[in-house]
Amino acid sequence: MFYLSNKAIQYPFAEVERVSVLWSIVYGGVLPFLLLCAWGAMFRPGSRKVHVTILGLLIALMLSTFLTDALKNAVGRPRPDLIARCKPRKGTAEDALVAWTVCTQTNIHVLQEGWRSFPSGHSSFSFSGLGYLS
To answer: Are 30 and 124 in contact (CB under 8 A)?
Structure first.
């Protein structure tokens, strides 16, 4: 539940993300994968060690994605652009506590993502991939 008068969630909806999901995957997953493959090709530590190292990276990425999504569903907070995503019905009282039922947003995915700002999926994915690489 939320107030329409809450200034913290009245920002405009960002059509274009500053860091897209694609670039997050590139920086957090593809780049570490390629660097680990290059390490394996240059130093030739043995195919088993390279295999285990790459599997470790993939497990770290999958585990962080799973835990982040589970936490988002359990304790997620509203995004700063929640009201713009919601598109509340005309005439809805701004000083009354309202639920998602006042929203007229037809794209359910956009509305549901409005409640999942914490923890950040981009940062946790990047941290797990680049942290594993280090």
So the answer is: no
DSSP helix/strand/coil, 56: helix
Single pTM value for the model: 0.84
Nearest to 54 by CA among 72, 67, 40: 40
Q: What is the C-alpha to C-alpha distance for residues 72 and 59, in angstroms, rounded to an integer?
A: 20
**Integer angstrom CA distances of residue 104 from 2, 69, 90:** 15, 25, 10
CB of 10 closer than 8 Å to CB of 83: yes
Measured distance CA(98)–CA(100) in Å, rounded: 7
Give residue-wise pLDDT tens across range 59-100: 999 999 999 999 999 998 999 999 999 999 999 999 999 999
